[in-house]
Amino acid sequence: MYLLIPAAGSGRRMGSDRNKLLLPLLGQSVIAWTLLAAKQSTHIRWIGIVCQPHDWQDFKDIVADLGLSKMVHFIQGGSTRQESVYNGLKGLPAVADQVLIHDGARCLATPELFDRCAETLQTCKGLIAAVPVKDTIKVVNPANKIIESTPDRANLWAAQTPQGFVVEDLLRCHEEGIRQGWEVTDDAALFEQCGLPVQIVEGEETNLKVTTPVDLTIAEFILRQRSSANGSAKGEG
Ligand code: C5P
């Protein structure tokens, strides 16, 4: 399976002047945790990191430290996530027929989630990891902040990544998006707008996207919990 990791953002909402994926998290960088999970997936054989040229050297050093140089390739990012993924799709080897796309900022996704998505992609053309929403969601008028409606929570799912697609179909959807001027925040939205079905795969509640400083604190807590759970499992064995 081919994996593209959009990693060409900044640290603006994190209040950082550097790419948030290069910030430290429990002894590693954020992106290193993402890459470690992808490395442990039994399906992923090829990883394309989509990033800005000024971050290349830092990413290359991280990839080398993790011993991943053979399977990781670098592709130039764009000015939006949508553009970065499009560049990534064009940077895939010609033989790549299916692809998973996973935000570098979702550094807590587990290898099992990558595997579940890769396996489900054998039965459909498009999928996303998602979890049912726990909050009641309101649609709000941006001008006066008055609530317009309350969608039925039973039908609402929070989109995560990985998202997986047949490469040829997703490329066509991206190109249609460029022609129509669609601006989207995930790849499923392009598939949907082109009338193609997107399957839900059960995501993970811990699969948060590191966006603001509090997310780093929560991510560190979860990683510590995982490492002590692994330690005690090994101790028992
Ligand atoms: O900003 P946000 O966290 O929503 O971005 C989601 C993912 O898209 C991040 O991993 C980020 O690095 C990536 N991204 C990108 N190119 C951009 C903007 C964001 O690859 N121009």
Spell out the key features of this protein:
alpha/beta, Spore Coat Polysaccharide Biosynthesis Protein SpsA, Chain A, 7-stranded mixed beta sheet, 7 helices, 11 strands, binds cytidine-5'-monophosphate
Quote the CATH topology: Spore Coat Polysaccharide Biosynthesis Protein SpsA, Chain A
Largest sheet: 7 strands, mixed
Which small-molecule species are bound to the chains here?
cytidine-5'-monophosphate
Question: What is the alpha-carbon Rg in Å?
Answer: 18 Å
The global form is: globular
Instruction: Kindly provide the name of the CATH class.
Output: Alpha Beta
Strand content: 15-25%
The quaternary organization reads as single chain
Number of helices: 7
Notes on the protein architecture:
There is one protein chain. With 237 residues, the chain is of the alpha/beta class. It has a single domain, classed as Alpha-Beta Complex (Spore Coat Polysaccharide Biosynthesis Protein SpsA, Chain A), CATH 3.90.550. It is built from seven helices and eleven strands. The chain has helices at 30-40, 56-65, 81-90, 111-120, 167-180, 187-193, 213-236, and strands spanning 2-6, 24-25, 28-29, 46-51, 72-76, 98-101, 126-132, 139-140, 147-149, 157-166, 199-202. The strands form three sheets. It has a seven-stranded mixed β-sheet, with helices on both faces. A hairpin with a 6-residue loop joins strand 8 and strand 9 (147-149). The longest helix is centred in the C-terminal third of the chain and has 24 residues, at 213-236. The radius of gyration is 18 Å and the shape is globular. The model has no long low-confidence stretch (mean pLDDT 96). The protein binds cytidine-5'-monophosphate. Residues 6-9, 21, 50, 77-81, 84, 103-105, 209, 211 line the site of cytidine-5'-monophosphate.
